Amino acid sequence: MYFGVLDLIQQAIPLLRQSRGRIIVVGSVSGIVTLPMGGTYSSIKYATEAMSDALRLELGPARISVSMVNPAYVNTAITGRALEQMHQDEIDTKFYSALFEKVQRKARDRVWASPCCAETDDAIAHAVHDPYPMTRYYPAVVAPSVPAIAAVPVIKLLSIHPEIH
Q: Transmembrane segments in this chain: where (predicted)?
């Protein structure tokens, strides 16, 4: 997933230099805040965040803007299927089954309570059309809390999940 995005961007850079285009990367709040049972997914999203930051610094002199759109929970058919097929077989179910079920249940509840794609669509449209696109967009109901949560030390986040210890 990450290397595909990187390869596509690298191939587009010559055209973007000519047109002073824009790069808009759709990531996830999981690239900012890692939750239990989401390490693999979050690591890819963290890498995408770092790539976007590096590209912004490297391509800024060529007047190529780079924006990240980081939605939280978005209610789509793909998200629903992904939640139902979470990789439970990849974990030690004896040790983590209770935590896994709790995380899956909370994620499912948040997804079903979330809007569809309109907020994410609006953020992408802003990044494409605005003369001064933002560096990061956080479209979703929980968006205002994301930067604050990202500043909380991981150990504090773990304290809300005593079953991890």
A: none
